[in-house]
Amino acid sequence: LYSHKKVGWKPADIISTVEFNHSGELLATGDKGGRVVIFQQELESKNQPQCRGEYNVYSTFQSHEPEFDYLKSLEIEEKINKIRWLPQKNAAQFLLSTNDKTIKLWKISERDKRPEGYNLKEEDGRYRDPTTVTTLRVPVFQPMDLMVEASPRRVFANAHTYHINSISVNSDCETYLSADDLRINLWNLEITDRSFNIVDIKPVNMEELTEVITAAEFHPNQCNTFVYSSSKGTIRLCDMRASALCDQHSKLFEEPEDPSNRSFFSEIISSISDVKFSHSGRYMMTRDYLSVKIWDLNMESRPVETYQVHEYLRSKLCSLYENDCIFDKFECCWNGNDSVVMTGSYNNFFRMFDRGYRQDVTLEASRESSKPRSVLKPRKVCTGGKRKKDEISVDSLDFNKKILHTAWHPQDNIIAVATTNNLYIFQDKL
Amino acid sequence: MFPKGTKRKFSDSREEPVAGGEDVNQSSLAAVRMLSSYSLQRQSLLDMSLIKLQLCHMLVEPNLCRSVLIANTVRQIQEEMTQDGTWQIMTQALSAANAAAQCSADRLVATEVLCRQTEAAQGEQVPKPFPVVGSEGCPAKEVLEEEAAAAEVGMTMSTVSPQAPTSYLPGTFGMDPCWEEEETGEDDDDEEEEEDSEECGSGSEGEERERDSLVEDTRTAEQVFGTFEIKNPAPSPDPALEELFSDVDASYYDLDTVLTGMQSVPKMGPYDLLESLSSHGPSPLSSSTSCRSDLNELDHIMEIIVGS
């Protein structure tokens, strides 16, 4: 595996979201400072066939700025919570980026030629006196250095009282949903002054609030279907054809609690931090604090597969509650053919689970362990007893080094892994 | 993680609700050692959760998911404590102490119970300094340690007992007059003060500040725990504000109030927080400084509970 990383130096550089576009050629990252950085994969070079195509910075722009809510006397963070690409329709690329309150549609376009040869202006830009213009000259496009421009095309604002945690583009490519803690809204990409509320779980009396929405996503193929997960470990699948307001779910996915594992932290660790449909649309994956679960959409009673990410933390839940790590929201992702799933952990570890071969591996994203063109060495956490060489004991794990955001190329074995300060891109050289 | 000091408090409250004298202390000591660690852990978790709820609104708009999960945890603990009867004991103790309440200041839970039980038990009129217990170590609470780093500690229990409502008082359950009396005993006092001075500084200066800062915002405890006590619904927001923002969805704001008990919290960055905790002067009663004093107060309370 190669490794290729970009480095951020300031707290504002903390990466908060990572997303490949539909072809995998572009990789977008959003950070705490409201910036979006897009990387582009270089075309394969005939001279260096091993160099599959490294990712280099393609475009950088400021998507969101910090704001102040005067009514509540609270700051609105500019941190980018999610980025989602639209399927490409023409030469330009479009993506949606969102902070806690506002979603923006950005157009990223290339310009590699410009018209030259106008005879209407002087050198300094002033318009010439029309009577001095004696020839009709048609400007000609001349090549220029590639310039990538990002321009905001739509701003979808003022529709969310609570913090937006998810956005998802519909397969119809005309609408998208945005979800906050208590509500989900449906938008038309062309219309910014109106959105439809499709889910509302806010209780009449806020004192009765016990559950919030944690993630939501549209089905990859069925444009009428979406799911949303909750802080109580449930996933609800909704059909927009059934009614305008989808408070009544079509399906409720929930695994009964294991009574032997019950503790005061049971609910917290059951809270789902991410939900992702498989590319096929037949399965969905959820991430809770300790595990990844694969659900068959046809079976609501329990997941079909469960993978333990870091079960050794179960005995440390009290400490993790104390230092707030128990509230960390890890994301998860599928590979292109849905055979492998990946998620992050602590100590800059990330885990991959091969569903077919029933194998899993723990890898580390760090400068020390990743030299260019070197193969990543599998890591192991020692859970008790004698610690073998190269193993790490649970107590020496660094809980400040957490990998919350990972992304997998839609077709190839290329993954992007974000640590607190760095982005790592690993490629599988076959 | 759960040292004997904490155990002692807890079991005292179970065994000897109202007592005085040295011999009681010794029998309590024996009873203490048999206390189940489960109850202690549960208590500690409850205290920790309450602190998290209090503090979470100090920064940028709090994370609702986190707040809800913590609040649910507190409810779970409360339900369990109600089921095994420990909740009722605490509530009863509070009611008894309520009758003897003199001061109008409403303070966070622990202080109230401590004050009242002291008065009920000893009938003392004179304020008596109680050094914060540092005996035999204490559970290391990261949150507390951070906040307490610069704060001096000293406690005055009696005169400032609040006129608090009959709402339950979580977090103080471990507090008990027996424990306090034990510390008022000559030997214990010296011992405690020694240990106390290691970590927390002298008592007298803190005592004065404590008295001043205890004359505080009376809504706090009521609001913080309003959610969890069926008898006491959360107080309604300021009617003038309501009217002004009647067309605004203030529901989030309400939850904030309900869960965290503070309405007009000034924005404070992390450095402000530390600064306010280390300030020693008496704080005038005003909403703009109430949260800073509350933090001082909270800090003191938790140190009593935790025994740092």
TrEMBL record, chain A:
Keyword set for this entry? Repeat, WD repeat
Per the UniProt record, the source organism is Oncorhynchus tshawytscha
Q: Does the keyword ATP-binding apply?
A: no
Q: Which PANTHER family match?
A: PROTEIN PHOSPHATASE PP2A REGULATORY SUBUNIT B
Q: Which GO terms describe its cellular component?
A: protein phosphatase type 2A complex
Q: What is this protein called?
A: Serine/threonine-protein phosphatase 2A 55 kDa regulatory subunit B
Family, according to the entry, reads as follows: Belongs to the phosphatase 2A regulatory subunit B family.
Q: Oligomeric state and partners? A: PP2A consists of a common heterodimeric core enzyme, composed of a 36 kDa catalytic subunit (subunit C) and a 65 kDa constant regulatory subunit (PR65 or subunit A), that associates with a variety of regulatory subunits.
Organism's domain of life?
A: Eukaryota
Cross-referenced Gene3D superfamilies:
YVTN repeat-like/Quinoprotein amine dehydrogenase (2.130.10.10)
Q: Which InterPro entries match?
A: PP2A_PR55, PP2A_PR55_CS, WD40/YVTN_repeat-like_dom_sf, WD40_repeat_dom_sf, WD40_rpt
Q: Which GO terms describe its molecular function?
A: protein phosphatase regulator activity
UniProtKB/TrEMBL annotation, chain B:
Q: Where is the composition biased (Basic and acidic residues)?
A: 206-216
Q: Please give the GO cellular component terms listed in this UniProt entry.
A: nucleus
**InterPro entries listed in its UniProt record:** E2F-SERTA_domain_protein, SERTA_dom
Q: Which residues fall in a compositionally biased region of kind Acidic residues?
A: 178-199
Query: Residues annotated as region Disordered?
Result: 1-23, 161-216
Domain SERTA: start-end pairs: 38-85
- Name of this chain's protein: SERTA domain-containing protein
Q: Which organism is it from?
A: Oncorhynchus tshawytscha (Chinook salmon)
Species classification: Eukaryota, Metazoa, Chordata, Craniata, Vertebrata
